[in-house]
Design a protein that fits this description.
Protein name: Alcohol dehydrogenase catalytic domain-containing protein
InterPro entries: ADH-like_C, ADH-like_N, ER, GroES-like_sf, NAD(P)-bd_dom_sf, Zinc-ADH_QOR/CCCR
Largest sheet: 7 strands, mixed
Number of helices: 11
Mean pLDDT: 97
Strand content: 25-35%
CATH topology of the largest domain: Quinone Oxidoreductase, Chain A, domain 1
Order of helices and strands: EEEHEEEHEEEHHEHEHEHEHEHEHEHE
Bound molecules: NADP nicotinamide-adenine-dinucleotide phosphate, zinc ion
Distance between the termini: 10 Å
Helix content: 25-40%
Structural class: alpha/beta
Pfam families: ADH_N, ADH_zinc_N
Number of domains: 2
Organism: Halomarina halobia
GO molecular function, one term: anion binding
Radius of gyration: 20 Å
CATH class of the largest domain: Alpha Beta
CATH superfamily of the largest domain: Medium-chain alcohol dehydrogenases, catalytic domain
Length: 336
């Protein structure tokens, strides 16, 4: 089989398509003929050498969001069979720690993520596969796991309800667009930011209620407060946007942080946090049940994930270049 592998770090030119042995399933695994695999900023962190994957792991096949058709299963697998259309929940959990027992599973002490979907075939844990109804497209499904599942879990953590106003700094990428769509789907309202007028125009079509065209934290803080203080902030940017996201909350408001695209550390105005009884929460991914709920939303016609562009396996390097350039809106999906 062929796979798009990282052969070095630092730039998209280190992504190349190479031959690999066809995988055989372990007893608890299934082999999936990959129809679609989306890419995430997490994969770009790895390619840029910012995560824990090292030279010894090269060539490294990234790709967490796998949708496709089962072609073979191991001896102990009973939940799927060859021919089933499936979507992988990329969560890897130990199943035995206190956090696995008490839930949510994303709190698992040994939590990690599946990698390997940017390939013609993927060997995956069979019990992490979600069945796809016939009318759910593989490309749409592949958009869901990392971005939409995380955004949904953040909304749940922030206790966002009907009519609430939610601030999403950086609202035009995978997590950002997912957040805007899901906020709209539950009857809440949103404020989204971007440095690109073009991308904000596309956000308007998805039901965003207010947009702010800026990348400047101070300017964004004033613009949000001028609209209204918000019930919740969903923040994947971090860096200087953490204090902005905190400051614009109403008294008792909640900010959930899931990323650090704009920087790994932040100064927070502590008086604002405790005097105004605000809450700041961290979040990683979501649960397989969250993912099943998202598949149901697509099947019911209540969610149409935004895929900016699809790429062939040979164009995977270009997909990473486009994400790196911030020239895309929503999700990028490779169709191996
Ligand atoms: N904890 C978790 O479980 C989890 C799950 C998913 C994602 N994440 C994290 O969430 C972040 C977003 O992931 P994604 O896949 O949605 O990424 P993405 O698609 O690349 O996000 C693009 C968005 O981020 C903005 N942006 C990019 N670089 C920026 C910068 N340097 N400063 C300010 N804004 C910037 C873009 O703004 P413009 O429109 O202005 O270009 C755009 O709105 C990543 O840090 C990722 O690691 C974490
Ligand atoms: Zn565990």
């Amino acid at each position: 089989m062929r796979a798009a592998a990282f052969t070095g770090f630092g730039s998209p030119e280190h992504v190349s398509v190479e031959p690999f042995d066809d995988p055989d399933p372990e007893p608890d695994e299934a082999i999936v003929d990959v129809g679609a695999c989306s890419i995430n900023h997490h994969d770009l962190w790895i390619l840029n050498g910012d995560l824990w994957i090292g030279e010894d792991d090269l060539p490294f096949v990234a790709g967490m969001d796998v949708a496709g058709t089962v072609t073979a299963v191991g001896a102990d697998v009973h939940n799927v069979e060859p021919g089933d259309r499936v979507l992988l929940c990329p969560n890897e959990t130990c199943g035995s720690c206190r956090y696995c027992r008490e839930g949510p599973e994303s709190h698992c002490k040994r939590f990690s993520l599946y990698h390997g979907g940017l390939a013609e075939q993927a060997s995956v844990q069979a019990d992490r596969l979600v069945h796809l109804p016939d009318d759910v497209d593989l490309v749409d499904a592949a958009a869901l796991p990392v971005a939409y599942m995380t955004a949904l879990r953040m909304l749940k953590q922030a206790e966002v309800g009907v009519g609430d106003l939610v601030f999403v700094p950086g609202a035009t990428g995978g997590v950002g667009v997912a957040a805007i769509q899901l906020i709209d789907a539950i009857g809440a309202r949103s404020i989204g930011t971007s440095t690109s007028k073009q991308k904000l125009d596309r956000l308007e079509d998805l039901g965003v209620d207010y947009t702010i065209e800026s990348g400047d934290p101070d300017e964004i803080r004033s613009a949000v407060v001028e609209i209204s203080r918000v019930d919740a902030t969903l923040n994947h940017l971090g860096g200087p946007f953490s204090d902005v996201g905190l400051n614009v909350l109403r008294r008792g408001g909640r900010m959930v942080i899931c990323g650090q695209t704009a920087g790994p550390t932040s100064e927070l105005t502590l008086g604002d946090l405790f005097l105004n009884q605000k809450r700041v929460l961290g979040n990683t991914m979501g649960t397989q049940t969250d993912l099943e709920q998202l598949v149901d939303l697509i099947a019911a016609g209540d969610l149409d994930p935004v895929v900016n562009e699809t790429y062939t396996l040979d164009q995977t390097s270009q997909a990473f270049a486009d994400m790196n350039d911030r020239s895309v809106f929503g999700k990028l999906v490779v169709t191996p």
